[in-house]
Design goal:
Number of strands: 0
Distance between the termini: 43 Å
Radius of gyration: 15 Å
Helix content: 40-55%
Order of helices and strands: HHHHH
Length: 77
């Protein structure tokens, strides 16, 4: 039973941690402009108050994460 509970918890975590496209809920962003301006996650927080509305995993989503890295991981084009 303990193995089953561990498996279920792992599957729930994996589902919660799945990368999503921001445009599922929000208007598409101009990725080219944000890439050219070297936007980072810190920039998102400064300009768009991302941290007030979302709580990404801080171990993975460091402030210096670039928009290119975000779009690569989340499959945004």
């Amino acid at each position: 039973m303990k193995k089953l509970a561990t498996l279920a918890a792992g599957l729930l975590f994996a589902g919660a941690a799945a990368a999503v496209d921001c445009s599922d809920c929000h208007e598409s962003i101009d990725i080219t402009m944000h890439t050219e301006s070297e936007a980072t996650l810190a920039t998102c927080n400064d300009c768009h108050a991302l941290g007030e509305h979302h709580a990404p995993d801080a171990e993975i989503h460091t402030p210096e994460l670039t928009i290119k890295e975000c779009t690569d991981c989340h499959g945004m084009e």
